[in-house]
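[agent] plan:
  1. take the single chain provided in the ticket
  2. run structure prediction with default settings
  3. attach structure tokens to the ticket
  4. add a short note for the reviewer (M.T.)
[agent] executing step 1
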Amino acid sequence: MAAKSPPDSTPRRPVSSVSARKIKDNAADWHNLMMKWERLNDNGFTTANKIVNMRISEQFQDNKLEIACDNSATEPEKPTPKYNEELDNCCAELLETLKQMTKIQMKMEKLTSTTKAICDLETFHHGAGNCKAPFFHTWPTSYFYEVCLKLSEMYKKELQLKQTIVQDIAHSADQDLMMVYLSSWLYQPYIDNSSMLLLEAMLLETGHRQC
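[agent] step 2 finished; step 3 output follows
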């Protein structure tokens, strides 16, 4: 008579419990990433502002030199542009800030993919037409994915804008355009006011915030 194998003593958590824990962790991760993004945005604006001020100062000096040359009787040789180490360092600093923001946006996309996978798992276990009790208070699992996707798309578009700004801000000769770049970096037009409302609602739903 074959001996029975001993029962597995390790308790197994139900899939719904694991999924709820993962969604709650994801909500906390969203909060941390968005706060890190805001700090980097502030740092990037400070750096971009220095770049613009240096570029405007250079243009002012160049204009003064051109006027002096025009008023001179002789035709002097045009001086070669001086290497601006401070400007170069600021550009490198802004590029590093962009790299850090890129990493954050990639993590946001990963959180969105994870939430989509949880939705697919719920559909597999319960069927697309079956109504399942929410993990927390009122949100169905699919709404967590909708919120994550909406936030992820906002930050993806904003990152693309910041890539353009980093590429052009130190090379533009148009002061008005440089000021537009600065304003766009600071106010982040693709991240609308609903982003913080969505985040706070998700934190409230998952129990990270109390009513």
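[agent] step 4 note for reviewer: Residues 15-71 form the longest helix (57 residues).
[agent] ticket updated
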